[in-house]
Design brief:
Blueprint (H helix, E strand, L loop, with lengths): L1 H9 L4 H38 L24 E6 L2 E3 L4 E8 L6 E4 L3 E3 L1 E5 L2 E6 L16 E6 L6 E2 L1 E2 L2 E2 L1 E5 L33 E9 L2 E2 L4 E10 L6 E7 L5 E3 L5 E3 L8 E10 L6 E12 L5 E12 L9 E9 L8 E10 L5 E8 L5 E2 L6 E7 L4 E10 L6 E13 L2 E13 L9 E7 L10 E10 L5 E11 L20 E3 L3 E4 L4 E7 L4 E11 L6 E12 L5 E12 L5 E5 L6 E3 L4 E9 L6 E10 L2 E4 L2 E3 L8 E9 L4 E12 L5 E13 L26 H13 L4
Parallel strand pairs: 2-12, 14-21, 40-47
Antiparallel strand pairs: 1-3, 3-7, 4-5, 4-8, 6-7, 8-9, 8-12, 10-11, 13-15, 15-19, 16-18, 16-20, 17-19, 20-21, 22-23, 23-27, 24-26, 24-28, 25-27, 28-29, 30-31, 31-36, 32-33, 32-35, 32-37, 34-36, 37-38, 39-41, 41-45, 42-44, 42-46, 43-45, 46-47
Length: 727
């Protein structure tokens, strides 16, 4: 029936499609039905599986494989390493062969630790051996070796199984200078068969990438230091690297070392080496090339060489010549004195490029320095290029030399390769100014024994006059005052020959007493001689406060017989003290009671002609406590004016009491001064209060008796009644 329905519906389709459907339609429908049945079966099976499992847990997702890893990789192998033995203290490089090496593979020696490793490719590694490896065998070959291990992430350490046995790195001790006959022969170990390593394609390739020359320009016979950077631009490490300067050129190694050994260079690694070379004397001028040869090998033992070119500019040196000059000079004394000796110390230097022989220095033009005890020419000797020499030249300064800076020349002569040379050096000499010799008198000391003087005060002055000149002052007269100059008289009472007919004016402020104002002092020797004088003075009573000058006139005779006069001045301070009247109102008693207050009142009256600049008044007491008025501020007290201060003092215990009153003021020279006034009295204990005795018994009548009134009894009763003790 279904076939009939299919036939009916397909009849309405176009003829071509109907033909296709008639052939394949049934097969397609059958396939779709079969797929639907299978899907329903799988779904029913999953549902039954979930019902049969009580607690189903979701399985964790499988880890995703890294995108940069291949799906399958063979484990790495360690097939061989070279060399199998090294010498202790020499270091070296270890070549490791195998397969499957990653870029982060690490190489280690068992018991030593990791080694600096270089990845060559998946089949080869290179590791640097330190020079500090201790030997593993003795001089006779007895001992063991170090296991070489390769560490790869995710795998156990790889050990070389070379030829079926475990291979180790043997470190032999350094050879000693033992005679060959003392070393017993040993049989060489049989070689171990190893599979040939896989060849690494390519080769090491060394290039000079950069260099510089110091100096950049060198003269023939000079030395230049090249700093060369060498880089391995190949695909294999460069082992056993050495650099040498090619022979046969104009440059040779400067230190005598023909070959320079360098460390191994890995791929793309670089190193820097210093190569000093010396240019030959016949090297032509201009840019010159220094050729170097780099010799090296790879891990297979193949040897290679490479060339490098270094360039330096060669310039012909200037002709060699000596040049002797005056570098420094010094005079002793400085400034020099005309007519006296002076020591000239010079330093000559050969600043040229050739030696100077038979160097001679002599005094030239200038007429300031004259030949001394050793003449005016001084030999120096031979001076190499760059050398210096010091020469001392004792000379005499001309007496006609003018004071101040003066020019003076020196002649320097020498021989250069047998040819005479000479040059002139100039100096500047500082000549001292001559001072005519004469007495130089100073007032060395002037003492009165007081800080200041008062008007009308008498005092004694002690003075010292000192001669610091180079001539004595003879027959000296000292006058305390001024003397007007006059014509020499030639005679005087003291036979000094130094008096002058002038007018003497004594000081009006400080009048000399007892000598008339003039004293004969005698002779004061030169070079520090002195005299001591004593003179009595009185201060004028009319002077005011101030600083006054006392002129002291000195008249004496020089060494050449001429008369001289000088005036020295002494400064003296005069202060006019205030004229004050201090009066206690009322006066203090001679005694006071212990513990009782004592009132002190002081009236201060200014009886002078100037105001007194008071600051304060202070009251202090010994064996007394100032309870009031210990410090009282005061103002300026004008002339003919007065003021007062008061204080209360309590003596704490009996005994003498000393009261001190200090008046502080500023004097006319603006210096703080004080006036101190003291008073004394005695502190005694206060008398006890009066006591009264009871009247005698006869004053009271006996009971039953009538007392008789007597005149005395009546008087006593009246007294007792007055005192309130009776009636």
């Amino acid at each position: 029936m279904r076939n009939r329905e299919w036939t009916r519906r397909s009849a309405s389709l176009p003829a071509p499609l109907r033909k296709i459907m008639s052939v394949h339609g049934r097969l397609i429908v059958r396939a779709l039905l079969l797929a639907l049945v299978m899907a329903v079966t799988v779904m029913s099976w999953q549902a039954s599986a979930q019902e049969s499992t009580p607690e189903a847990t979701e399985a964790p997702p499988a880890p995703e494989a890294p995108q940069d890893k291949i799906l399958f990789q063979l484990p790495a192998t360690f097939d061989d390493f070279q060399p199998r033995s090294v010498i202790s203290g020499q270091g070296g490089s270890l070549s490791i062969f195998g397969s499957g090496f990653p870029t982060d593979a690490a190489v280690a020696l068992e018991g030593i630790g990791l080694l600096p490793a270089t990845f060559i490719n998946a089949n080869a590694l290179s590791a640097a051996l330190p020079t500090s490896l201790p030997p593993t065998v003795d001089s006779e070959g007895r001992g063991g070796g170090y296991k070489v291990l390769i560490y790869i992430a995710g795998q156990p350490p790889l050990e070389c199984i070379c030829g079926g046995t475990s291979a180790t790195l043997v470190v032999r001790p350094a050879p000693t200078s033992i005679p060959p006959t003392s070393i017993p022969p040993t049989a060489a170990p049989p070689p171990t068969a190893a599979p040939p390593p896989t060849d690494i394609p390519g080769a090491p390739n060394l290039l000079v990438r950069n260099f510089n020359a110091n100096p950049t320009t060198v003269a023939p016979g000079g030395t230049v230091n090249f700093t060369v950077e060498i880089v391995n631009a190949g695909t294999r490490p460069a082992l056993g690297l050495s650099v040498s300067v090619d022979p046969g050129g104009k440059f040779i190694p400067a230190n005598g070392q023909a070959t320079i050994l360098l460390p191994d260079l890995g791929v793309n690694a670089a190193t820097v080496v210093g190569i000093p070379v010396t240019a030959a004397e016949d090297t032509p001028s201009g840019p010159q090339t220094v050729t170097i040869t780099m010799a090296y090998r790879d891990f297979t033992g193949s040897a290679y060489t490479a060339k490098g070119s270094l360039t330096v500019n060669v310039q012909k040196a200037a002709p060699r010549a000596a040049q002797v000059t005056l570098s420094r000079y010094m005079f002793d004394p400085n400034p020099v004195e005309p007519g006296k000796e002076a020591l000239l110390t010079i330093l000559v230097t050969n600043s040229g490029s050739a030696a100077a022989s038979q160097v001679l220095v002599r005094v030239g033009d200038g007429n300031i320095l004259l030949a001394g005890p050793q003449g005016d020419s001084f030999p120096v000797g031979d001076l190499a290029a760059g050398a210096s020499a010091s020469v001392e030249m004792p000379l005499i300064v001309s007496a006609a030399a003018k004071p101040g800076p003066q020019p003076q020349s020196l002649k320097i002569s020498y021989l250069q390769e047998g040819e005479a040379k000479e040059n002139t050096a100039s100096m500047t000499i500082n000549v001292a100014k001559l001072v005519p010799t004469s007495p130089v008198l100073l007032l060395d000391t002037f003492e009165t024994g007081k800080t200041f003087l008062q008007p009308g005060e008498q005092f004694t002055a002690n003075l010292t006059i000192k001669n610091v000149g180079e001539e004595p002052a003879q027959n000296m007269l000292v006058t305390f005052g001024t003397v007007s100059p006059g014509a020499p008289s030639g005679n005087d009472d003291n036979n000094s020959g130094t008096n002058t007919t002038g007018t003497t004016t004594p000081s009006t402020t400080f009048a000399p007493l007892g000598s008339g104002g003039t004293v004969f002092a005698g002779t004061i020797e030169a070079g520090g001689g002195f005299i001591n004088l004593t003179q009595e003075f009185i201060v004028s009573g009319s002077v005011d406060s101030g600083i006054y000058t006392l002129p002291i006139t000195l008249r004496y005779q020089k060494a050449d017989g001429s008369a001289a006069q000088e005036t020295l001045n002494a400064s003296l301070v005069v202060i006019l003290p205030p004229r004050l009247n201090l009066e206690l109102q009322p006066p203090l008693p001679e005694q006071t009671n212990v513990g009782e207050p004592l009132t002190l009142s002081l009236k201060i009256s200014n009886r002078g002609r100037k105001s007194v600049n008071f600051n304060s008044a202070a009251v202090a007491a010994e064996n007394g406590e100032v309870v009031e008025g210990a410090e009282t501020p005061l103002a300026t007290l004008r002339a003919e004016d007065d003021t007062s201060i008061s204080a209360i003092i309590i003596p704490p215990e009996e005994g003498p009491v000393k009261i001190t009153i200090t008046l502080n003021y500023i004097d006319d020279l603006n210096k703080p001064q004080s006036i101190v006034q003291t008073y004394e009295l005695e502190a005694v204990l206060a008398p006890p209060p009066p006591t009264f005795e009871p009247p005698p018994d006869s004053l009271f009548p006996v009971q039953g008796e009538t007392p008789q009134a007597a005149p005395d009894d009546l008087l006593g009763r009246l007294l007792l009644g007055f005192l309130g003790l009776g009636s």
